[in-house]
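Quick look at the format.
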Amino acid sequence: MSFTAALLCFVFAVSDGDTLKARCDGRAATVTVRLAGIDAPEYRQPFGQRSRQKMAELALDQPARLECQKREDKYGRQVCRVWVAPDHCRKGGRRSENCPLTLDAGHALLTVGLAWWDERFAYTEPPQMRSAYAFSQDEARARHVGLWSDDDPVPPWLWRRFHASPYRHAR
């Protein structure tokens, strides 16, 4: 799966751990983004609120670089890798404007156990990214952090089968 040219954006809303809204240079409309490669717990699912909170800490009210797939998902969202400035760039609660956007926000959620690597869409990612995502998920599971501290965590794609989604009738 190929990705379009990078967009420089400003994240102004975080819906859940893997969905956000941004305003991007060169686009009049707001972009709704689904993070590529991960599936975060739904908001009402265990760890859903913590996942959303972590994504907000990483990206809300911050600049971001989006590398999006050419096609939208079935809900009309852009599927993108989201790159933000790392936490060490913070000065007084805001990130420095000179800090590079080098932190993969989806990978960061996997590392702290607040998302699943979505193997169903692994073919859309380059091999090195698949390996990094799989390794980070395995490490989080081995450390029992985040959702992996639960005895039997339920992946969001299974949880959604039995619970209504706010996106189900979108478009």
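Next, a different chain entirely:
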Amino acid sequence: MKVENVYIESLGVVLHEWADAEQAVAEGKLDAETQAANGLTGTHVSGDVPAMDLAVQAARTALERSKIDPEDLGAHIHSAVHYQGPDGCYPPGYILRELGLGTIPALYLQQGCDGMLSALEVAIGKLTGAAEAGSVLLTAGENFSSPSMDRWKGLGQAYILGDGAAAALVSDEEGFAEVRSLNSGVLHELESWHRGDGPLLLREDAGPTSDMVERAEQFAERMPLSETMEKLTLFDLDIIHRSLVDAGLNASDLARVVPINMDGRMIEYSVMMPLGLPMSRCSWEFGKGVGHVGGADVFITLEHLVRTREVSPGDHVLLVSQGPGWLCSAAVVTVTDTPHWAD
């Protein structure tokens, strides 16, 4: 969809202690050949800081950097991948209370690693539709320090999971970047790739559920990995091309492509090469040392690019993320100003 009069007004990011992938290899947490092949150099670890508190910290930074009066916020959208709190808790309520914000509408999205771009899509509707929200706060926070998750190998060989958070304030009036387009879709043919063959009804005698790697192996028995990758690559590229067309741009007009933080080979072969762009136009050199922080990846990287002035007014940036389902979203933003919090 073509987007008009929607702006990214402020960003906030939280990343704590850095953990070196080579040290993880030395400690036996990660296979040396895997680390050498995927090129990922490390991740961030937040210890005992809960995911929702990380989101609160990122939101506070975004609000402190913003010209928007917190009392004028029109809505809040939180997204997450991993554990946020006890079953039945409502993360947006916790975040709003901690921030001392008003009784505004709030949504909790579970769109996997596509979370924050999905939230941006909902925010566009809030800003341009009947809600007339004026401004929307987006948050995402993850802490993978969990006995149920192996941050080094839990998502296979292409990812290292990272703790952290991102927040974005989106406005219908002004900001340092204009949202030009956003498109998304679900390639449901690949839905069981992440679901696996387990039961859909929870029973006491169901036994332990398989992890993500085991589910992928189960799916590969029905569809070869090469066919899966071809299907999702073509699907993702269609979403990307639609967003470029809606923004009135060609791939060659892009100053940066910002994907989720994963194996650089996957980014090069499935995104950059088909677009005819070199890896130097991708943000992977930064992302390879951040870790995969769920849906927050693209906004963590965008904040870095803007704050360090690696992108400047007039630059077009493509944001791309995916999630189980198979979900994909792609947005084009154009930097229009250098915010006061840039280095």
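The domain at 180-198+210-335 is CATH 3.40.47.10 (Peroxisomal Thiolase; Chain A, domain 1).

See the schema section for token definitions.
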